[in-house]
Write a structure and sequence with these properties.
By secondary structure, this protein is an all-alpha fold. It has one domain: Up-down Bundle (Four Helix Bundle (Hemerythrin (Met), subunit A)), CATH 1.20.120.450. It is built from 5 helices and 2 strands; from the N terminus they run E-H-H-H-H-H-E. It has a two-stranded parallel sheet. The chain is globular and about 45 Å long.
């Protein structure tokens, strides 16, 4: 199949990507790197139709951009609400009986609802993070394995970076667009 022409991906106007401050505190830098990766995910999805977001264009993988957004919504809630804020355990898109429900069942919720939920969960994650003043502080909800804020933020940056790599490939397979 011939390669589609490459086009640089536009940033989403409501979620610009800002490079982390070179002289900020550890907690601020980690938070800014996470925000950079959150904005990258939004950028990778910008301008696509609902059908495009549901596409699984790279066989044999069942990954889709919408599945990544749903997965990262659950991950955000788990690490910030449950671990850092000791809120009750809850899943949004998967269950014990359907552990891949976040990646599957793409028609279970309208795309606009998925995005609204993602942005609400991210806003709550940011609120929770503001209740901590140091990366070395221990998470309030240790779930039997205590971790500090630094560990959670580093893990979240890694989680987004890995899935943004998937998003790069998915977006290019959908419409040929590339970009950082």
């Amino acid at each position: 199949m011939p390669r589609m022409p490459s086009a640089m991906l536009p940033e989403h106007p409501d979620h610009p990507r800002t490079d982390p401050d070179l002289e900020a505190s550890e907690l601020t830098v980690l938070s800014q790197f996470l925000d950079f990766h959150r904005a990258t995910l939004v950028m990778k999805c910008a301008g696509l139709s609902d059908a495009d977001l549901r596409q699984r264009p790279i066989a044999p993988s069942g990954l889709s951009l919408l599945g990544l957004v749903r997965h990262l919504t659950d991950v955000e809630y788990g690490w910030f609400a449950e671990w850092l804020d000791d809120q009750p355990e809850k899943t949004i898109y998967y269950t014990d009986d359907d552990p891949d429900g976040d990646f599957d069942n793409l028609d279970a919720h309208p795309v606009t609802e998925v995005w609204a939920t993602y942005h609400e969960v991210v806003a709550e994650s940011r609120r929770i993070l503001q209740t901590y003043s140091d990366g070395g502080e221990m998470a309030r909800g240790n779930r039997g394995r205590p971790r500090n804020v630094r560990w959670v933020l580093t893990h979240m940056v890694e989680e987004y970076a890995r899935h943004n790599g998937h998003a790069d490939l998915l977006r290019e397979a959908i419409d040929g667009s590339t970009g950082e």
